[in-house]
């Protein structure tokens, strides 16, 4: 297969962590980092279908020739520790990465009961290929660790991959079964969020609206080169979906503003109850709020 990185990214739409500008983080540079400032237009990707069998949904540690290996995570609740892992590809340990949403690696952690979500960005040791990041897991239980990155193929191209594995934090696990709010709604820090549209497998776009005191919020700031980051997990198998709104801040425009309505491309391939973790930024503060959705077949 001889696809350009851009074409590959375009195929993989909602997981679309492809190059959306804002490439100004110098802490984790790699040789291919510059490639990601190509600035694909998200709108170009609308209507494309993603190849989940190749990308993955975070439920498998191994997929399409890539493996998540040597995963070490804190095992004691509430104790500061470190998460480390390595990605192996067809040519051995992958040490060369390209950015998606300004980062070389996105990592999500969620407890089996869909609580205790964390979205963190490990740093790469380019000599060994090991990723590491400080991590404290406050509560005991089984967790799904999900890593999202661009796999470097033997052809020298980059393809989206989402690999995952379970980690366990010692202690008594008491699952929380209450929903955060009514389906399709959420509130955080004085902001009210609502998703309109029918969440459906291969369904239509959804609309996320953010209001405060009844007024639309149009002061959303770019966070990781997007007006919102939405990572969802399906209740039960914890399969992951990830989407960014079609409305994108202009690349490298730190003063860009967005909202109140954000369009979400179709992202679901399996029905069920999902908890979406929505992150957005206003006034320099990143807000995080869970929202449950029922996705029909
Ligand atoms: Cu991230």
TrEMBL record:
Alphabetical UniProt keywords: Signal
Signal sequence coordinates: 1-21
Superkingdom per UniProt: Bacteria
The protein's name: Secreted protein
Organism classification: Bacteria, Bacillati, Actinomycetota, Actinomycetes, Sporichthyales
């Amino acid at each position: 297969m001889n696809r350009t990185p851009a074409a590959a990214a375009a195929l993989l739409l909602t997981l679309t962590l492809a190059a959306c500008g804002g490439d100004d983080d110098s802490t984790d540079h790699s040789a291919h980092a510059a490639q990601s400032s190509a600035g694909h237009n998200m709108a170009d990707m609308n209507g494309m279908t993603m190849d989940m069998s190749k990308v993955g949904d975070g439920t498998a540690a191994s997929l399409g020739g890539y493996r998540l290996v040597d995963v070490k995570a804190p095992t004691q609740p509430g104790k500061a520790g470190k998460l480390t892992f390595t990605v192996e590809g067809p040519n051995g340990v992958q040490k060369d990465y390209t950015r998606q949403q300004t980062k070389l690696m996105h990592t999500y952690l969620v407890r089996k009961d869909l609580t205790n979500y964390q979205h963190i960005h490990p740093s790469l040791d380019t000599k060994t290929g090991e990723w590491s990041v400080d991590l404290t897991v406050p509560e005991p239980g089984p967790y799904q660790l999900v890593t999202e990155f661009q796999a470097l193929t033997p052809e020298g191209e980059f393809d989206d991959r989402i690999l995952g594995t379970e980690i366990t934090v010692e202690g008594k696990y008491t699952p929380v079964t209450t929903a955060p709010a009514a389906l399709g709604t959420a509130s955080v820090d004085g902001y009210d969020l609502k998703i309109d549209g029918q969440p459906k497998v291969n369904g239509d776009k959804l609309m996320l609206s953010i209001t405060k005191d009844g007024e639309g919020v149009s002061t959303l700031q770019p966070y990781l080169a997007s007006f919102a980051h939405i990572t969802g997990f399906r209740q039960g198998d914890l399969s992951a979906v990830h989407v960014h709104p079609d409305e994108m801040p202009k690349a490298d425009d730190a003063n860009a503003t967005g909202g109140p309505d954000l369009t979400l491309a179709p992202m679901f391939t399996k029905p069920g109850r999902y908890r979406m973790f929505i992150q957005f930024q206003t006034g320099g503060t990143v807000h995080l709020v869970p929202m449950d959705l029922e996705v029909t077949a």
